[in-house]
């Protein structure tokens, strides 16, 4: 199973639900009533969201059915491939709409949940872009989702502040801030608190619809120089899903009375099937696209998920599956060539490190890893990169500035024609490396702690000097599942043992003791670690359908 919705775990009992919102006919709000939320969930905004849901729900349902059909095909031995029917798109001479001047320079983008303090710090970080997240970095509770909408409206209005009572410090926006992008949830996630005609709304239409409705006019005036708003779109697997987004954008623009092509979006290429559809995805969004992004942790997760029935596709320890692996380098290079050929940004991956303030030597070593990764990206031709912490922004900015000079991007200067020769075999090459007991332990320990935090409402979690989000939990869980299902041999540390239920049970027991030792008994008790363990176990003993 995948992480799914927070409400699968914490569904509000009937006596906790309030129905005080002014909802239009056919719309039912089952989340807690709050006066600030009511200003977001006003009648007109809900009518706009309901209009999107009613117009596109059948197409969304069909797209999800196509995903299931593709999964069945892969489980029966097929592999993703370039679609012969869309060869004319891949080989055609066309480009996307020109990149808006407001976001021509995206050399460093910082990402994080749509939480109040995070939004202020990220917008003030010195990064060119802040991606506010309703997806992997946000635990999707009703409180988090609606509070996030309130926060973003205040941010776009320029009025957002935060009083940290513990530090007696007030946070507010600087005069110059990063450009704001927003990432809604993926097509597959429902919003259980909002029913439209008796069915849960599509989560991404709620996220997009509420944000667009309340903010498009102010955003275009203050940030977009007459264009926008700007978005990141996650978890797509096929261009038909991109076409739905394009139609959603067109309907929103028409409803708002703004010109076609105002909304712009970057698509995360973070599923294995999508890498074979990059041209097609850009083509469907060509009037609304500003590029593609390498979502590398989710991409590795998708590799395992796609080949879950293939015994010969066992991954090595996940720390060994980096961008120097041939299939990962091929994915990155092909993305750069595709984007630059079509006139849009090719964005690099995440630097998840957190500054280690109490250990200068370890901090310097971590920063050196960041420098090497970002140097690889800029030299490969990426136009920008991601950072998880404000402390990494200057390091990343220095690397890209030193190598790009005064140009805002490399769209024209790094065409990467050599990548045109990348084949299906390059994109599917089996990762090389070894599997170890330490790798099993790390997946277990990190997976339990992240899920425990997620269940208590935190989606962006610092663990072992890295800022982790749901992608880490997914790759940790699916790799443990894969090794357990196929009895993988741990050949990397000389043990030669195979993963089975007994070994996994012993690892879980020992890692729970380690977590308690590291956290302390009181924090361990309060942190819902048992809940994280229970969710991890669900994955270990079922077919992975997430």
Automatic annotation (TrEMBL):
<keyword id="KW-0808">Transferase</keyword>
<dbReference type="InterPro" id="IPR048355">
    <property type="entry name" value="MS_C"/>
</dbReference>
<dbReference type="Pfam" id="PF01274">
    <property type="entry name" value="MS_TIM-barrel"/>
</dbReference>
<keyword id="KW-0330">Glyoxysome</keyword>
<dbReference type="InterPro" id="IPR048356">
    <property type="entry name" value="MS_N"/>
</dbReference>
<dbReference type="InterPro" id="IPR011076">
    <property type="entry name" value="Malate_synth_sf"/>
</dbReference>
<dbReference type="GO" id="GO:0006099">
    <property type="term" value="P:tricarboxylic acid cycle"/>
</dbReference>
<keyword id="KW-0816">Tricarboxylic acid cycle</keyword>
<protein>
    <recommendedName>
        <fullName>Malate synthase</fullName>
        <ecNumber>2.3.3.9</ecNumber>
    </recommendedName>
</protein>
<dbReference type="Pfam" id="PF20656">
    <property type="entry name" value="MS_N"/>
</dbReference>
<comment type="pathway">
    <text>Carbohydrate metabolism; glyoxylate cycle; (S)-malate from isocitrate: step 2/2.</text>
</comment>
<feature type="domain" description="Malate synthase TIM barrel">
    <location>
        <begin position="179"/>
        <end position="429"/>
    </location>
</feature>
<dbReference type="InterPro" id="IPR019830">
    <property type="entry name" value="Malate_synthase_CS"/>
</dbReference>
<comment type="similarity">
    <text>Belongs to the malate synthase family.</text>
</comment>
<dbReference type="Pfam" id="PF20659">
    <property type="entry name" value="MS_C"/>
</dbReference>
<feature type="domain" description="Malate synthase N-terminal">
    <location>
        <begin position="25"/>
        <end position="87"/>
    </location>
</feature>
<dbReference type="InterPro" id="IPR044856">
    <property type="entry name" value="Malate_synth_C_sf"/>
</dbReference>
<feature type="domain" description="Malate synthase C-terminal">
    <location>
        <begin position="437"/>
        <end position="525"/>
    </location>
</feature>
<dbReference type="InterPro" id="IPR001465">
    <property type="entry name" value="Malate_synthase_TIM"/>
</dbReference>
<dbReference type="GO" id="GO:0006097">
    <property type="term" value="P:glyoxylate cycle"/>
</dbReference>
<dbReference type="InterPro" id="IPR046363">
    <property type="entry name" value="MS_N_TIM-barrel_dom"/>
</dbReference>
<dbReference type="GO" id="GO:0004474">
    <property type="term" value="F:malate synthase activity"/>
</dbReference>
<keyword id="KW-0576">Peroxisome</keyword>
<dbReference type="GO" id="GO:0009514">
    <property type="term" value="C:glyoxysome"/>
</dbReference>
<feature type="active site" description="Proton donor">
    <location>
        <position position="469"/>
    </location>
</feature>
<feature type="active site" description="Proton acceptor">
    <location>
        <position position="183"/>
    </location>
</feature>
<dbReference type="InterPro" id="IPR006252">
    <property type="entry name" value="Malate_synthA"/>
</dbReference>
<keyword id="KW-0329">Glyoxylate bypass</keyword>
């Amino acid at each position: 199973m995948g992480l799914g919705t927070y409400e699968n775990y914490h569904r509000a009992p009937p006596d906790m639900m309030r129905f005080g919102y002014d909802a239009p006919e056919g719309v039912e709000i089952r989340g807690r009533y709050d006066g600030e939320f009511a200003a977001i969930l006003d009648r007109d905004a809900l009518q706009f969201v309901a209009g999107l849901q009613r117009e596109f729900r059948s197409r969304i349902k069909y797209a999800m059915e196509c995903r299931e059909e593709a999964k069945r095909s892969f489980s029966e031995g097929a592999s993703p491939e370039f679609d012969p029917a869309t060869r004319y798109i891949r080989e055609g001479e066309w480009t996307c709409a020109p990149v808006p001047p407001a976001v021509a320079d995206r050399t460093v983008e910082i990402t994080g949940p749509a939480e109040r303090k995070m939004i202020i710090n990220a917008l003030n970080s010195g990064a060119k872009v802040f991606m506010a997240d309703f997806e992997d970095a946000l635990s999707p509770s009703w409180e988090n989702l609606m509070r996030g909408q309130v926060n973003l409206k205040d941010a776009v209005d320029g009025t957002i502040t935060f009083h940290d009572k513990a530090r007696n410090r007030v946070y507010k926006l600087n005069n110059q801030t990063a450009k704001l992008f927003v990432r809604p949830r993926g097509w597959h996630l429902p919003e259980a608190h909002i029913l439209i005609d008796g069915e849960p709304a599509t989560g991404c239409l709620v996220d997009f619809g509420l944000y667009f409705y309340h903010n498009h006019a102010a955003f275009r005036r203050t940030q977009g120089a007459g264009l926008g708003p700007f978005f990141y779109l996650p978890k797509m697997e096929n261009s038909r899903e991109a076409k739905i987004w394009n139609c959603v954008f067109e309907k929103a623009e028409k409803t708002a009375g703004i010109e076609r092509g105002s909304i712009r979006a970057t698509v995360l290429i973070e599923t294995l099937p999508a890498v074979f559809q990059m041209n097609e995805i850009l083509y469907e969004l060509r009037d609304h696209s500003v590029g593609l992004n390498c979502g590398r942790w989710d991409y590795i997760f998708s590799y395992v998920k796609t080949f879950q029935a293939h015994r010969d596709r066992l991954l090595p320890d996940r720390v060994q599956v980096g961008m120097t692996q041939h299939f990962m380098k091929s994915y990155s290079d092909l993305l750069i060539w595709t984007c630059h050929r079509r006139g849009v940004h090719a964005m690099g991956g995440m630097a998840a490190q957190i500054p280690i303030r109490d250990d200068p030597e370890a901090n310097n070593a971590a920063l050196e890893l960041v420098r090497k990764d970002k140097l690889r990206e800029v030299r490969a031709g990426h136009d920008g990169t991601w950072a998880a912490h404000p402390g990494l922004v200057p390091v990343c900015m220095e690397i890209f500035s030193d190598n790009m000079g005064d140009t805002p991007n490399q769209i024209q200067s790094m065409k990467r024609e050599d990548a045109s020769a990348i084949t299906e075999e390059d994109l599917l090459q089996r990762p090389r490396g070894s599997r170890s007991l330490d790798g099993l332990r790390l997946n277990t320990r990190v997976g339990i702690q992240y899920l425990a935090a997620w269940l208590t409402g935190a989606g962006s979690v610092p663990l072992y000097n890295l800022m982790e989000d749901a992608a880490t939990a997914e790759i940790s869980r699916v790799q443990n599942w894969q090794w357990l299902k196929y009895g993988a041999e741990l050949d990397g540390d000389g043990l030669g043992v195979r993963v089975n239920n007994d070994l996994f049970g012993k690892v879980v027991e020992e890692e729970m003791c380690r977590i308690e030792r590291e956290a302390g008994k009181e924090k361990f008790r309060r942190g819902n670690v048992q809940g994280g363990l229970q969710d991890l176990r669900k994955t270990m003993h079922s077919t992975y359908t997430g």
